[in-house]
Design goal:
Largest sheet of chain A: 8 strands, mixed
CATH topology of the largest domain in chain A: D-Maltodextrin-Binding Protein, domain 2
CATH superfamily of the largest domain in chain B: MetI-like
Order of helices and strands of chain B: HHHHEEHHHHHHHHH
Strand order of the largest sheet of chain B: 1-2
Radius of gyration of chain B: 24 Å
Number of strands of chain B: 2
Distance between the termini of chain A: 54 Å
Structural class of chain A: alpha/beta
Strand content of chain A: 15-25%
CATH class of the largest domain in chain A: Alpha Beta
Distance between the termini of chain B: 22 Å
Strand content of chain B: under 5%
Helix content of chain B: over 70%
Oligomer: heterodimer
Number of helices of chain A: 13
Radius of gyration of chain A: 24 Å
Number of strands of chain A: 11
Strand order of the largest sheet of chain A: 2-1-3-11-4-8-6-7
CATH architecture of the largest domain in chain B: Orthogonal Bundle
CATH topology of the largest domain in chain B: MetI-like fold
Number of domains of chain B: 2
Number of domains of chain A: 2
Largest interface: A-B, 35 and 31 residues
């Protein structure tokens, strides 16, 4: 009787040891949460990387930038992801030193529904800001007409559409309006959700795009990838050097290349309205948020390996999914930063 | 909570006949004496404790929710006080929050939707129970219940892709041209608007009110109807004199259930209301509701005050729902006391 029990215990212990050994050998699980904007690209990266290193598994929850910042600050995930960089105050409130690792760039395009005008309506930054402030209320306003000689602009009121949900897209767009219009910066400011002076709110890119498709004389903003995939008409925007630039992957990357000279060491920089002849003006980084000192050294090693892969092979996949890859000089800088993760 | 109202209505107003019977049949079991009595009593006691626990756990969940939401919204409550409810400035960048436009949008959209939906639903329920031939009503009734089960996002998609453009191209221009002098129909037609939200809510609420009202009307005793007909009443007089008064409290309960659904509806309303936090008398202008702003902004609310303000809106929503339910109970109670027949 006792012997049988003893045998049983031994068997259970052996089984437990086996299971423990099994999990130790199995994959490292790295958890992340945050921005929805880069989610399609990140999931592609994680799937591709699983083929290279089957010993690591990534689990990414696209809960929004705000959620990503909250989760990494509470240390419930191994990395956060955000379309908005943390303020100094948020950084000091974090329990340890957080690094911003830029991964790719996104652009915001201005789309519209103007019967008779296909893509390529030309808008200067001042005009766009005044439209969103409600100061320019009609499509045939002289200031719009000035840049669009030859286009027939209807004498109809402009219906402004913006995002109703808090989003990184809104953050980049209002950042741009703040940087080109002092009155916007003063009275409204920038953020994931702001107090819009005029217009209708649509939920998500699809909400804004749906509103614009079904309603003539509307204007709105959506992510570049969304506009391209859905073949929405988009405006050419006047950049800092006075050129009207078509939104594209190349012109988005050009904006970051223009900013490379004054790139701060922590990459907390807004990329709107950057110098460069071909630079598209409404562009922003999306970042991973990672603690410099990792508690789990094995995990840290895997994470750094992944980041190095992402900066070389991963960047090549970005374009196909309509994300702008980092310019070569910025990618080199980021590689150095990744080395500092311990 | 809301289903409670309904079952209460049925129990107090309609199922009365069967009640005394079930009690008398149950009684002897507990009073049995003999060797087996102890065992049965234990089972009864266990069942009693178990059901008491289940009932109390519902109260506990409600209390926990209240406590948790209050503590989460404390920063906003401390900072703004009553100004949170009376203020109409909502600015996440400046950290200034006033929830009046959302409160306004929620109340107006659901009350108007209910006003439109209730007569429609009573009519539909009367048709099914009294007027339609059996074969037809047997087909319509399940279809209406099916409508009640359609997820709200599907109503929302239909609303934003089909209804809103139609409103913008036909209904709203007509309203603003003919009745534009009234403040209720002033302004440019956008399609997405308070009017669109009212319509979509009405469409969503009608199946619920109809199917409950139908059950209420079916419970009217045949003898009541026959008595009216025997007195020489026409069909309309029979409906007016015997069916509607008898079912009054039940119909009211159904309407309140509909109101509960309308106040809490998030997805469909968010898609068609235009999401502009403005207080406007015009039905053509965009508006905003409490559930919508929570759904829209909570995921990306980075500042503590912002998420706390959204929590406080959630708290207000909860309180509004509780108040509606309390009022409903009061209303049902007073109505069923007045009309002796129903109670």
């Amino acid at each position: 009787m006792f012997q049988r029990i003893r045998k049983g215990i031994v068997a259970v212990a052996a089984l437990a040891a086996f299971v423990a050994a099994g999990t130790a050998h199995a994959e490292t699980l790295i958890n992340g949460a945050g921005a929805t904007f880069p989610y399609p690209l990140y999931s592609k990266w994680f799937a591709e990387y699983a083929k290279i290193d089957p010993g690591v598994k990534f689990n990414y929850q696209s809960i929004g930038s705000g959620g990503g910042i909250k989760q990494i600050s509470a240390q419930t995930v191994d990395f956060g992801a955000s379309d908005k960089f943390l303020s100094d105050q948020e950084l000091t409130a974090a329990p340890a030193k957080l690094l911003h690792i830029p991964t790719v760039m996104g652009a915001v395009v201005v789309t519209y529904n103007l019967p008779g005008v296909a893509k390529g309506l030309k808008l200067s930054s001042e005009v766009l800001a005044d439209v969103y402030e409600g100061k320019i209320a009609s499509w045939n306003d002289a200031r719009i007409a000035k840049d669009n000689a030859g286009q027939k602009l209807p004498a109809k009121p402009i219906i402004v559409v913006h995002r109703s949900d808090g989003s990184g897209t809104t953050s980049i767009f209002t950042d741009y309006l703040s940087s080109v219009s002092p009155t916007w910066a003063q009275s409204i400011g920038k953020g994931t959700s702001v107090k819009w002076p005029v217009g209708l709110g649509g939920k998500g890119n699809e909400g804004v795009a749906g509103q614009i498709k079904t309603t003539p004389y509307t204007i709105g903003y959506v992510e570049l990838a969304y506009a391209f995939e859905n073949k929405l008409p988009y405006a050419f925007l006047k950049n800092r050097e006075g050129h009207f630039v078509e939104p594209s992957i190349a012109s988005t990357t050009a904006a970051a290349a223009g900013a490379a000279k004054q790139m701060p060491a922590d990459y907390r920089i807004s990329l709107v309205n950057q110098p460069g002849k071909n630079a598209y003006p409404i562009v922003g980084f999306t970042w991973l948020l990672i603690y410099q000192d990792q508690k789990d050294k094995a995990k840290a090693k895997k994470l750094v390996e992944f980041l190095n892969w992402e900066l070389k092979q991963g960047q090549k996949m970005a374009g196909k999914l309509l994300y702008a890859p980092l310019p070569a000089n910025v990618a080199k800088m980021v590689e150095k930063t990744v080395k500092s993760i311990r | 909570m809301q289903t409670n109202v309904h079952t209460e209505v049925e129990a107090s107003g309609l199922g009365l006949d069967s009640y005394p019977q079930t009690e008398t049949t149950l009684q002897p079991v507990t009073k049995t004496t003999g060797p087996e009595a102890g065992k049965r009593l234990n089972g009864d006691a266990l069942f009693r404790y178990l059901t008491t626990f289940f009932a109390l756990s519902i109260l506990a969940i409600l209390a926990l929710m209240l406590v948790e939401m209050t503590s989460e919204s404390l920063p906003a409550i401390r900072k703004f006080g009553w100004q949170f409810v009376t203020g109409s400035n909502w600015d996440a960048v400046q950290g200034d929050f006033g929830a009046l436009p959302y409160l306004w949008g929620s109340v107006i959209s659901s009350v108007l939707a209910l006003l439109l939906a209730t007569p429609l639903s009573i009519g539909a329920a009367l048709f099914i129970t009294e007027i339609a031939p059996k074969s037809l009503s047997g087909m319509i009734a399940p279809l209406i219940e099916l409508l009640a089960a359609i997820p709200s996002v599907i109503y929302g998609l239909w609303g934003v892709l089909v209804m809103a453009p139609w409103l913008q191209s036909t209904v709203e221009p007509f309203l603003s041209e003919r009745f534009g002098f009234l403040p209720f129909f002033a302004g440019a037609p956008y399609g997405v608007s308070m009017l669109a939200a009212v319509f979509i809510l009405m469409i969503m609420v009608v199946p619920i009110i109809t199917s409950i009202t139908k059950e209420v009307l079916l419970a009217v005793p045949q003898s009541q109807k026959e008595a009216a007909i025997a007195l020489g009443a026409t069909r309309w007089e029979m409906i007016k004199m015997s069916i509607l008064p008898y079912g009054r409290s039940g119909i009211l309960g159904a309407a309140i259930l509909g109101l509960g659904r309308a106040v809490g509806e998030t997805m469909a309303v968010t898609m068609v209301i235009g999401n502009a936090p403005k207080i406007s008398l015009s039905l053509l202008s965009p508006a905003y509701t409490m559930p919508s702003v929570i759904a829209n902004e909570f995921a990306e609310a980075t500042s503590k005050l912002h998420s706390s303000a959204l929590m406080e809106i959630g708290l207000i929503l909860l309180v509004v729902t509780l108040v509606i339910n309390a009022l409903a109970r009061l209303l049902i109670w007073s109505v069923s006391r007045d009309s002796g027949g129903a109670a």
